[in-house]
Amino acid sequence: MALLQIAEPGMSAAPHQHKLAIGIDLGTTNSLVATVQSGMSTVLQDEHGHSLLPSVVRYLEDGSVRVGHAAQSAQTADPKNTISSVKRFMGRGINDIPDTTHIPYAFRDTGVGMVQIETRAGIKSPVEISAEILRTLKTRAEKALGGELTGAVITVPAYFDDAQRQATKDAARLSGLTVLRLLNEPTAAAVAYGLDNASEGVYVIYDLGGGTFDVSILRLSKGIFEVLATNGDSALGGDDFDHRIFCWILSEAGLPPLSQEDTRLLLTKAREVKEWLSENAEAQITSVLSTDKLINVKLTAEKLVELTQTLVTKTLNPTRKALRDAGLSIEEIKGVVMVGGATRMPQIRQAVAEFFKQEPLTNLDPDKVVALGAAIQANVLAGNRSDDDLLLLDVIPLSLGLETMGGLVERVIPRNATLPVARAQDFTTFKDGQTAMSIHVVQGERELVSDCRSLAKFELRGIPPMAAGAARIRVTFQVDADGLLSVTAREQSSGVVADIVVKPSYGLTEDEITNMLKSSFGSAEQDKQARALREAIVDAERLIEAINAALAQDGNLLSPSEKSAIEAQVQALITTSQGSDKDSIIQAVESLNHATENFAGRRMDASVKQAFAGQDLNKLEI
Amino acid sequence: MELLQRNYFELLGLPTQFEIDLTLLDQHYRKLQSEVHPDRFVTASANERMQSMQVATQANEAYQALKNTTARARYLLELNGIETLEESNTAMPADFLMLQMEWREAIDDANGAKNVSALDALLLEIKQMAKSLSQNLSGQFAEKAYVEASESVRKLSFIDKISADINRAIEQLEN
After folding, report:
1. CA of B26 to nearest chain A CA: how many angstroms apart?
2. Which of A196, A302, A478, A537 is the most exposed place for a label (fewest CB within 10 A)?
3. Which CATH class is domain B94-174?
4. How sure is the predictor about A297, in pLDDT bands with cuts at 50, 70 and 90?
């Protein structure tokens, strides 16, 4: 006789099937990893009991890499090889960095593309440096949870553009993590906050982190988190407050331009002073520089407010814009949630309280709330919650456009459109026999291409030769739930799909990533082969699991012959994936995917039909 | 997939008509996304992930088209085989053209005087106009007076544009 299993609502009835999923807050200053254990979202600590991992990476002389506190403590001694706040450089070119003179790294001016930093371990891309941080958190999670991870939700600032998001996803891939979703930080915070407080209504998330500022407006209703508008500044954060204090110390002590070591030393001092002044009225700053010069100055909390007033004001403009985009007035806001370590500063809390005419909510730790929310979402995405009533509907933060004649931008997808979103646009050829054309995609709100951010140039090739103006090429711009853009093109009259070659403006090409992956996994050809085979097998296993689950749930949607045809394909894939021929495994995966296309569609139709039928029943009951 | 063959009203479980229950629209949109959103298919097969993205994209488009009065009217006309031709057909009754010019002048004056509250007042006035046009639409659709409905859509579309211009002007003055 089978025993009935009793499970708490929201918990899996079969604990052994619990998938290990984590949420990662990849921050400018600090990073964290959290997971849901026994229904509670918890931040995972390292072996010393630290929750926060300083986002600092140091490349050592012996070729090893240190991440976190160990790297941070060497910052002053080894500034060139100890990289902090690398998030600021993700998907960014050298010209995007406002003031390189106060940053002690050896930037490599590549002229185009993402910045690179020269270290003793070689030239490093921000993507590789971020991957070291992610790898450390992955290891921490695997140790704490004692198993292989199904995947991770990684948070990004809501105002991150496509290049910055893609760079984050690439970093995750380099670190060996499976990305379940890129999640916007304020949305993650809303999940942690909203679920904790069972809130309903419209909330504003004010998120001032180490290097980025985000403001998001969400409507919370019965487990659905609908982002109405988002805005921000992806180059404004707590770091800028440190920098203001640093500059003040320079002028107050009458210092000449400093060495890199001394710059680092005083920046660290500045951060400590800023934190101290959140609780105290004044701070004495004493330090001995490498030149033996003694610094001894006093900074009051009042003076700090004055020094940073413009930075505080700078956060209110995006806030106003987001409200306008959402079509809401301040009176309609039910609560304002503070996120990010920088919101501990009293002048920030005061400014926000004055603006919204209400005290902001600070009952969750502003450093941890993002990671906690990401873990909750990861748990849902991995399929651990049976009553999956949590749904996040997020938006694209910045408009997508195309370059047209005269360097003007034609808007294709407007900002704050709910994801996923797609738009199709028709193009034609202007020369007889033209077989290729180029499309330049930009992101931003301005009218001139030069004022927007260049994302990529897509080159369409393989257009069938026709008379000028005869070809009708429909280009579809699809932005997925991660906020990432993909482009497909098809010539309408012939149905020919054009090849698309993507040249990301500030990202890495597929080849570059492959090369980084190769170098990070050693160079032996055998290793590479083994790894590729392993990846193919994992892919196959995932597909088999997914199809078997689908068959068990919805097998009745298939005729007996359709069902046995799919089952035969599954069996074939199982057999093939026990072998060691990577290519035939990939082929069998593709063929099973193809065989289940109709089944997938029918399942989707049926689930929607059922959902709406259920509602009609409810109505009848009333 | 049968879902992708449906019109926007059908997709969101509503009758194909101009007058719709906006609360029901919200509820049905959320219910539909709860079923088809890519977050529900993260561990599913590549097929299901692709199809989920297609339907979720369509659901978002449908929701936007039905939520906004002008867009809903435009879409319903399209379903009835009528193009509103907002770009090419700019012929408007004389009184509406006069009103347009007055509004444009009022924007310029307020802009010159950096008068945000005057712009706000103008926005309110225009909203009133939009409201009465929407009410007209309701009757026009009931009587299948599609030519008249087309003209209302063109007027509303103009109002949407001028409202956006005013909002942009306010934004610039506030910066």
Report:
1. 11
2. A302
3. mainly alpha
4. confident
CA distance A139 to chain B (A): 22
Q: With an 8 Å Cβ cutoff, is B52 touching chain A?
A: yes
Q: How far is B166 from chain A (nearest CA, A)?
A: 12
Domain A521-608 has CATH 1.20.1270.10: yes
Give the model confidence (pLDDT) of A381-404 as tens digits. 998 875 557 899 999 999 999 888
Over 60: is that where the pLDDT of A474 sits?
Answer: yes
Output A337 or B111, whichever has higher pLDDT: A337
Top-confidence range, A251-260, A379-388, B7-16:
B7-16
CA-wise closest residue to A378 among A608, A145, A58, A620: A145
Predicted pLDDT at A437: 85
- pLDDT of the residue at A56: 96
A218 sits in which H/E element: strand A213-221
Q: What is the CATH number of domain A15-198+365-388?
A: 3.30.420.40
Percent of chain B as helix, strand, coil, to the nearest 5: 75, 0, 25
The pLDDT value given to residue A171: 95
Report, at the CATH architecture level, how domain B3-67 is classified: Orthogonal Bundle (1.10)
Q: Which of residues 543-572 of A touch B (CB under 8 A)?
A: 543, 545-547, 550
Q: How many residues does chain B have?
A: 175
Which one of A387, A393, A539 makes the best mutation probe of the B interface by having the most chain B beta carbons within 10 Å? A393
- Please compute the mean of the pLDDT values over residues A586-596 and round it to a whole number: 89
> Cβ–Cβ of B34/A604 closer than 8 Å?
no
Assigned architecture for domain A400-511? Sandwich (2.60)
Report ipTM for this prediction.
0.88
Q: Which of B3, B28, B63 is the closest to A604 by Cβ? A: B3
Asked if residue A20 lies in contact with residue A384, where contact means CB atoms within 8 angstroms, the answer is: no
| Integer CA distances (angstroms), A406 to A126, A448, A449, in order | 34, 9, 9
Instruction: Kindly state the helix (H) or strand (E) to which residue A117 belongs, with its residue range.
Output: strand A116-119
Residue A436, phi then psi, degrees to nearest 5: -145, 155
| Chain mean pLDDT for chain A | 86
